[in-house]
Structure formats: structure tokens, C-alpha cells
Backbone:
């Protein structure tokens, strides 16, 4: 039984480090939408890709090059970890908190 638990633990660790193209695409789509961009807008800002390629990456049909990954990270202002392995905290939370603070400041300014 102990050997089984050790083997299972090792398998689980390897599985957690496995790159899943479909999950990467889902995280990319989520971060793109949080940034308020369409696939076409993201492709235009990057400049070295097309809307169709972004769509295929988001659906997990294709992967992107390291160069494109760097451009995506830079354009969306996210970390590589958050896109590749989802190891960071969700970037939507700080954005939501900031938007809440801004709306509260606007309300206060209107009362003055």
C-alpha cells in the first residue's frame, strides 16, 4: 500500500506539471476578455499574428511560439505562470478591487 501511495504521489506531481494546450487556450481567452480585447484587437496589438491564429490557440488546436507567448504576456500585462500553469492568483481580483475603489471615489467626488 505504501508503494502505491508513493507511486500515486509521483504521478500526481508529474500530472500537475503537464502542459495542457486546451487549458492554456482557455486561460488566454479569459485574460484577453478581462483586458477587454477581441481576438482581432489582440492580434493587431501584437502585430506578428492573426485573429485566426489567436482563435486556434484559444481553442487548443495550435500552440504558440515562445516569441508569441512573450508578446501575449506583454500585451495583456499578465505573467507567464498565470497563462502556462495557472500558478498565480487570478489577475481579475486586483482589477475588480481597483474598479470598485474607483467607483467609490467617483461617488465621493459627486457628493462633494
Residues:
Amino acid at each position: 500500500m505504501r508503494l502505491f501511495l508513493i507511486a500515486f504521489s509521483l504521478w500526481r506531481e508529474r500530472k500537475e506539471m503537464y502542459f495542457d494546450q486546451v487549458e492554456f487556450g482557455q486561460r488566454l481567452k479569459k485574460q484577453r476578455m478581462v483586458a477587454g480585447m477581441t481576438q482581432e484587437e489582440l492580434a493587431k496589438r501584437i502585430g506578428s499574428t492573426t485573429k485566426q491564429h489567436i482563435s486556434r490557440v484559444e481553442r487548443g488546436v495550435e500552440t504558440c511560439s515562445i516569441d508569441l507567448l512573450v508578446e501575449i504576456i506583454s500585451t495583456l500585462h499578465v505573467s507567464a505562470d498565470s497563462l502556462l500553469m495557472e500558478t498565480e492568483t487570478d489577475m481579475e481580483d486586483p482589477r475588480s478591487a481597483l474598479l470598485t475603489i474607483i467607483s467609490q471615489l467617483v461617488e465621493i467626488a459627486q457628493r462633494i
Notes: The chain has one domain: 20-111. Residues 92-111 form the longest helix (20 residues). The CA atoms of residues 69 and 80 lie 8 Å apart. The domain at 20-111 is CATH 1.10.260.40 (434 Repressor (Amino-terminal Domain)).
